[in-house]
Amino acid sequence: MRAHLGDQLVIESPATGAARRDGEIVGLRHDDGTPPYDVRWSDTDEVTLVFPGPDAHIRHLEHEQSGATHAQRPETGGAEAVSAAAPPAGTTNPGDIGRRVAVERRRQGISREEAARRARMSPDYLAYLEEQPADPALATLIRLADALGTTVAALRGGGMDLPPGQGYALLHPQLRDLDPEECRSLLSTHGVGRIAVTTSDGRPAVVPINYDVVDEAIVFRTAPDSVAAAAAETDVAFEVDHVDEALSQGWSVLAVGRASVVTDPEAVRRLTQHAHTTPWAGGEREMWVSIRPTSLTGRRITPAAQ
Q1: Cα-based distances in Å from 136 to 133, 141, 201, 266
Q2: Banded pLDDT at 170 (limits 50, 70, 90)
Q3: What CA–CA distance (Å, rounded) separates 142 from 97?
Q4: 8 A C-beta contact, residue 171 and residue 302
Q5: What's 148's DSSP letter?
Q6: Shortest CA distance to 164 belongs to which of 178, 152, 153?
Q7: What pLDDT, in 10s, does the model give residues 246-289?
Q8: CA nearest to 93, candidates 136, 131, 135
Q9: Residue 298, SS3?
């Protein structure tokens, strides 16, 4: 019997074949995948060390490179398992859930070891989830979402094409103002926000931009002929927010100030060198615009008890 991280250990009745218990293998004690295993049981969510008996078999998560659904095949004790569809050793092929977990973890500056500790799993298992097209159990996703301060839906990518805020409002919401220090903290160092401008034909427009925060200035790259470029040398409003669909709460920060084009070559070089992200829209976007907020306000919606 051999297993991989993420496989399922199933204990069945020899007489009826009915499953009596099953769990996710979250730890290996031997490099070759032989028993014993650390198993997180689906009925109790507890992790125990298991030496499988003759009534146990492994269901493998075989990852099709073509993106097909995972095939599962039972393996009786004593048989040796080799997944022909598994990625070659040394290569990585992260699935959507793993990519979202890894991106969110890095965004928050959390090490893999710390995230694994918070989610009560081994670092090796978290590495497996991030680097392979795994389909972890719901209990695993719940722990990961809690450890990363996000939601299961966000890790699964659910509702990506829907506008935020379609859930129910809190029964007893509390709306409170944020002080400037909280606003600066929520702006963090970079992300995606929206800028409100007046275009050349006098029409109002709001467009999303990738931004950075450098020396308390909000900076972004754009093209000279873009809508966002209309912000140059005008007073603008810039907004960034976060909505937690699962908990029906969130926050928003609004910065108002003068936008100006960065023309100093040394300043442009420094911004380009230290930018956290490149504009998602792509193309030639080498015009840097800086917003020095003269007003920084924000609001947060939470349950009234908090």
Answers
A1: 10, 7, 52, 48
A2: confident
A3: 12
A4: no
A5: H
A6: 153
A7: 667 899 999 999 999 999 999 999 998 888 888 888 888 989 99
A8: 131
A9: strand
